[in-house]
Amino acid sequence: MASLVDNAMAAALAGETRDDSTFGDYASLFGFCRSAVMQEGRLLEDSIALAVRRNPDLMLLPPKPMPIVPAAQEMLKRTPSDEIKGIRFPSRVHATESYRPDLFVVNRAKHSGLILDIKRSLPSYRPQEIDRLRFRMLSVAAIASEWIAENRGPLLVSVETAIVDGADELSDHERGVFRLSQIDELLGTEGTAGFVEQVREGFSRRVQEELERRCKTVLGLPLEGKSTSAALNPLAQPDEVSPLGGEVIGIRAAGPTERRFGYAQRPGLH
Fold it and tell me: For residue range 102-116, what is the model confidence (pLDDT) as tens digits?
């Protein structure tokens, strides 16, 4: 867990600070904030990915751009979500667009796939942008089983899509949108949401400490020293055990999957 935070913080600090006429002496603060925001989104992906890798029933497919079939995208826009399960599209077509999932999770037992797109804060996106994203994801899901098989991947009988709101505010299951706190229901695991939240809290503390240091530097205020161990690993808590500490995250039993592809549906959340 600590290494995830360390890597994200190192990447945030490595972000280039440029002179900015608007922010002036505060350009370093602005640059760091912008870099930290970007790294937090990646941290959410990395945390979920680690939880998936620790689960023997789940696996991650290598991140690769997948073709967007134009005919699929147009038809899906005109088809109600509850009527798309029988539609099939060939994967061997000329495609000018592609989409690369943030995470493509495979459930070995169910032979199912879940395409995840993780957003740090979905409310910051316009509704039109969200709609465009979900149709891109859905059109990829429509050909995913064949495309993956052709690329020597696992056999999948169904593929779902889900956009995850890292801000934990938006949830619209009919359109394939889920809150971050619902990640366990999406994956069929236990403890993933708590683990991701712990990692995020550790990163937040480090970011706030760095912001405080930079603010004091800009204002010419004295800096207070902190222990190296606490600064490097604020998550180290001897009396608490990480949800991933040497253990796998369990997976919940689920019923048979009937749909070939579509938005992720979790009856317990509706």
Answer: 999 999 999 999 999
Query: Considering the entire predicted model, what is its pTM?
Result: 0.79
Domain coordinates in residue numbering, the chain = 1-55+191-235, 56-188
Tokens of 168: 């934990």
The per-residue pLDDT for range 194-215, each reduced to its tens digit, is 999 999 999 999 999 999 998 9
- Could you identify the residue written with the tokens 């969200």? 130
Pairwise CA distance, residues 188 & 172, whole Å: 19
